Amino acid sequence: MSKINETSVVKDQYATANNLNTRISIHDKYSTNKMGFGNWIVSNYSIQKGMKVLELGCGTGDMWKNRESLISDCASLVLSDFSEGMVAEARENIGDYANVTYRVLDIQSIPYEDETFDAVIANMMLYHVPDLDRGLAEVRRVLKKDGAFYCATYGEHGIIEYLSQIFAAYGVEDHINKNFTLQNGDDILSKVFAKVKKLEYVDSLEVTNMDDMVEYIHSLSGMTSLNHMSPDRIKEILVENATNGILSVPKEYGMFIAS
């Protein structure tokens, strides 16, 4: 997919929170690791009182809900996203705080001075950046010399690979975006940062209501080849691959901490 087409798809996918909320919902309902990926990510942050924090691609802001103490520790917290709709959703979910700023901005051109932030966060979004080298250079520029960059991502052997296998006969191919994954993220970050640490989150899905999985599939831009199939037929295939009414779906998620 060209960079122009990728950017267009991202804009369409994240213009509103509907698709993202659908994907969050299935993880909330059916994940076998009950800690929750978001809770796990936040548990690995080292945000001390008085720090300045920038989040890129904040989405709906779900990561910051009910985290008033963490928010209050920040001298300033900038929650930003490429999508105006997402920024509006984040503001609605989190609310207004004296130390929180909501901004529409592009990681490839961050409008802050050098060494402004103690921590920069970019979860589940780096694979969408058209010029990732430029984006990471911008992150490094605005990060203080002793600061940390936190970036969660997926692996190449998770949900999409599994769905591509069971729907292969219907024209579905594994077109997962591999621009920044658990497999190659270390090498990519090491070009810009001196130290890179990878952490892996052990989890899977055990889905009992196939209607939820059908809705999830329809939220994925990579599953458009199934648009010609009826939801009932998609559901039948999912049921055929279930065991005792449970569809077991592998997940591969984790994060990098770079400094």
Could you walk me through the main structural features you see in this protein, from its secondary elements to its overall organization?
This protein is of the alpha/beta class. It has one domain (3-156, 176-205, 252-258): Vaccinia Virus protein VP39 (Rossmann fold, 3-Layer(aba) Sandwich). Helices cover 36% and strands 22% of the residues. It is built from ten helices and nine strands. It has helices at residues 3-13, 18-30, 37-43, 68-73, 84-94, 132-142, 159-166, 185-190, 210-218, 231-240, and strands spanning 51-56, 74-81, 100-104, 117-122, 143-154, 196-201, 204-207, 247-250, 253-258. The strands form two sheets. It has a seven-stranded mixed β-sheet with strand order 3-2-1-4-5-9-6. A two-stranded antiparallel ribbon has the order 7-8. Helix 5 (84-94) links the parallel strand 2 and strand 3 (100-104). Helix 9 (210-218) packs across helix 10. The model is unreliable at 1-15 (pLDDT under 50).
